[in-house]
Design goal:
CATH class: Alpha Beta
Distance between the termini: 15 Å
Helix content: 10-25%
Shape: globular
Strand order of the largest sheet: 2-1-5-3-4
Number of helices: 2
Oligomer: single chain
CATH architecture: Roll
CATH superfamily: Beta-grasp domain
CATH topology: Ubiquitin-like (UB roll)
Order of helices and strands: EEHHEEE
Largest sheet: 5 strands, mixed
Radius of gyration: 12 Å
Length: 95
């Protein structure tokens, strides 16, 4: 698969968990770019500013026994991240 130049360079895919489902996404990229990797059309045409102003890409990560809210466009993916809640604007169903 040929990927557009929108992704930061990566050599491998890392596993993260999104709402209980394990997914493989490109390392070295923001979470929002990873979501775009998983669902190119729905994220590309979504209501996202891509710079952190709109908060439409907010997700909540499992942080020990608590949740931590982050902005997906400003958060770099890390292996084994666990996303437990997502903004309603993020639609990965169009994959």
């Amino acid at each position: 698969m040929t990927l557009p130049d929108i992704f930061a360079p990566f050599e491998k895919l890392v596993e993260i968990e999104i709402l209980g489902e394990k997914r493989l996404v490109p390392e070295n990229n923001s979470l929002l770019r990873c979501f775009q990797y998983l669902s190119m059309e729905s994220i590309s045409y979504g209501e996202f500013c891509w710079n952190g102003d709109c908060l439409n890409c907010q997700v909540w990560l499992q942080n020990g026994d608590k949740e931590k809210a982050v902005i997906a466009c400003r958060t770099t993916v890390k292996p084994d991240m666990r996303i437990i809640r997502m903004s309603d604007e993020i639609d990965l169903a169009g994959e």
